[in-house]
Amino acid sequence: MKRFEYFSTLLPQLAGEKEGPVAPPVVSSAAFGYASAQEAEAIFAGEVQKPFYARMGNPTGARLEKALAAMEGGAGAVVTASGMGAIAMAVTAFCEAGDTILGVGGFFGGTYALMNETLPRLGIEARFCDVDDFARIEESLREGVKLVLVESVGNPNLKLPDLAKLGRLCREYETLLAVDNTLTPLVVQPLKTGADLVLYSTTKIISGHSAALGGAVVFRGVGGEGEKLLSARYASLRPLLEKGKGAIGAILKKRAMRDFGMSANAFASFLTLLGLETLPLRMRRVNESTAKLAGLLHAERVRVRHPSLEGHEHHLRYEAHFPDGCGPLLTVECGTRARAFAFLNESKLLTQTANVGDNRTLGLHMASTIYRDFDELDRKILGITEGLVRISVGLESPVALAEDMLEAWKKAMALK
Ligand code: PLP
Q: Which of 41, 94, 246, 337 is most solvent-facing, going by the fewest CB within 10 Å?
């Protein structure tokens, strides 16, 4: 719990100002004037740090980037228009046609589709393996994959990776490790266990209010002993390493954001900063409520899945590596699509939507929505069954949620 105290002190201080307007200013200008031709040249050369065109960043986004970097202990961050924008930026900045990336564990549907369908169109292949298949992970690292991507908690398969072990392996094989930490900000700090990039959909619990789409890549500093980016595998990035500690920021912007334009807008960054101020309070509440709700439903024999439950395959890992919880998700297996629909429709508290990490508790049938275009094999890999309902726990009373869901479950189970 100590970490919540630490972040509750840090984040409100970073989001606002002590003098003048206390709330972060929204600078919505798309373009920025230069004092002289000389200054324009210096800004474009990176010698003067001033905004020069909003596709490459704006002052409100820069404030959010500073806060996110401090939160992760990173050297910097680049905010994006969405979580998918952040993932696409990270992959396309570091990889090129002919490269292979490795996806470890379960993935949110959009990430899986990006790796499985879209990146191959650009000549970047993706392989997938289970979080515990270390033989395959090591084989892929030996064969030279360029980037390893993993979710800190599989959405929605709820498998927990051993991030420290993955970090050690990626360091040994000089391979970049990117962790999608969307569901576990504050309770997991991937840069501390060997990740190079931390990816966020800030649309989720960082904002909490469902009012702003956004994403971010937070990165470590470049340099020092064992610098992976000096490996021959990353030779095409060499010229940008001259930028020193913050070189990953330049790689992300100059090799992806400049040309694909997945840039964050200032108002979304402002709304995200408003969420970030209260993230530690909400994160603590949601983590405690999710485990409590899972326990209450399990005690009533609802088929609920969450790592805090003893029967979960990563329960021991949960206890050892996730002492403050693993985010807002749990799943309920209703057996059939009809029962899953009834469960969702009978609940009075669930909001049915495709988001997660909201202040309200959300529910969604997986197979008929996000995963509807996926074939049977892909659904099997991702743990999607006909009866699977994903719940994202919000700020409501976990006891009230359990009562509501139990009623809905009983009605759903009464169906033939
Ligand atoms: N990563 C995870 C774990 C997600 O759950 C999502 C969205 O649900 C994303 C990335 C994509 O984020 P966005 O919807 O902001 O593009």
A: 41
